[in-house]
Design a protein that fits this description.
Layout lengths: L1 E10 L2 E11 L4 E5 L6 H8 L7 E6 L2 E2 L4 H4 L3 E4 L11 H11 L4 H15 L14 H13 L5 E5 L7 H16 L4 E6 L2 H7 L2 E6 L2 E7 H6 L4 E8 L4 H8 L4 E7 L2 E7 L5 H10 L4 E7 L3 H9 L6
Parallel strand pairs: 3-8, 3-9, 6-7, 7-8
Antiparallel strand pairs: 1-2, 1-4, 4-5, 9-10, 11-13, 11-14, 12-13
The protein binds adenosine-5'-triphosphate and magnesium ion (MG).
């Protein structure tokens, strides 16, 4: 449906997107995952024809959308990272405005507004000004306006950043329904691994303007099929303990966070004894320890040596 080849964008000397190739098939739910500054928003702005690329092509059903944007635009809904609503207007008025921009009017417009408000769960609050909404409600209306023209493809740029868990779950569930029940093709941008794991059939992992891995969740996790992660919770972290862990045979990577350490180790390594010995030597108190099967977060860590949310 959409095919992106060797897409790149420079802002003066800054390379925001270096080389991105990806595709979207009809009905798929695809994740674009990457840390802050990876180039996600720049990539989707180019796919949405809002930003001209420095190099590369975007094709929709074989046609170059950079030359013929009018083919793609009407069937595309874009939910921007920044909330783009008229704050002093109500949800109803915002939706009516954006619906009219897309040429919908009369009863069709009214029906579409009510149907979409129902979908985002804000029917009761539709007459209130957007400025009185919570962050999560604004996000939901931001999505609603992108759905007013019944797009076939929905591109969402980090739609759940900075909102409460309840709104977040609501949005995730909604996107899943749109994809599974209505057959909407979804490109979902996020730096939350769990969201992409829940929602998406296929994932692209992006870092420093490039796609560094892609595939189904299973394919990506199989990168780590020979490794597993050991989580160690400690009372307080200590560089001596970290150094001991790093030099331990069988430990491929050590990552530190507030709770303690994550070790990526070769599968089947029996390291628990050694870990406790090192803890004793460094005078560290271990509160909890467990071995877990790899997540996409671990895949990212493995590929880049960094955590996604650094
Ligand atoms: N208009 C611009 N002018 C100059 N540099 C830009 C511009 N837009 C983006 N960049 C730079 O390009 C890089 C990629 O930015 P982009 O917004 O695409 O990343 P992102 O993956 O969406 O990050 P985030 O998760 O923070 O939204 C960043 O280093 C950013 O500073
Ligand atoms: Mg962004």
């Amino acid at each position: 449906m959409i095919e992106v080849k060797n897409l790149g964008k420079n802002f003066k000397k800054k390379i925001a997107v270096d080389d991105v190739s990806m595709y979207l098939d009809e009905g798929e739910s695809v994740g674009l995952l990457g840390p802050n500054g990876a180039g996600k928003s720049t990539t989707i702005s180019m796919i949405s024809t809002l930003l001209p690329p420095t190099k590369g092509t975007v094709k929709y059903n074989g046609k170059n959308v950079l030359k013929e944007p009018e083919e793609l635009r009407p069937i595309l809904g874009v939910v921007p990272q920044e909330i783009a609503l008229y704050e002093e207007l109500s949800a109803y008025e915002n939706m009516s405005f954006f619906g009219k921009v897309y040429g919908i009017s009369g009863k069709k417009l009214e029906d579409k507004i009510q149907e979409t408000l129902d979908l985002v769960g804000l029917k009761e609050r539709q007459k209130d000004a957007v400025e009185t909404y919570s962050g999560g409600m604004k996000r939901r209306i931001n999505i609603a306006v992108a759905l007013m023209h019944d797009p076939e493809i929905l591109i969402m740029d980090e739609p759940t950043v900075g909102i409460d868990p309840q709104s977040r779950n609501y949005i995730l569930e909604m996107v899943r329904k749109l994809n599974r029940e209505r057959g909407l093709t979804v490109l979902y941008t996020s730096h939350y691994m769990e969201e992409v794991e829940k929602l998406c059939d296929r994932v692209y992992i992006m870092d420093h303007g490039q796609i560094i891995a892609s595939g189904t969740k299973e394919e990506l996790k199989s990168i780590l099929s020979n490794e597993e992660t050991i989580q160690i919770q400690v009372e307080e972290t200590k560089s001596e303990f970290r150094d001991l862990l790093s030099s331990q045979e069988g430990v491929n990577q050590v990552l530190e966070d507030e709770a303690g350490y994550n070790l990526i180790v070769s599968k089947g390594e029996q390291l628990l004894g050694e870990i406790f010995d090192h803890a004793k030597q460094a005078n560290i108190k271990i509160i909890g320890i467990h071995v877990k099967t790899p997540t996409l977060e671990d895949v990212f860590l493995h590929l880049t040596g960094r955590k996604l949310r650094d």
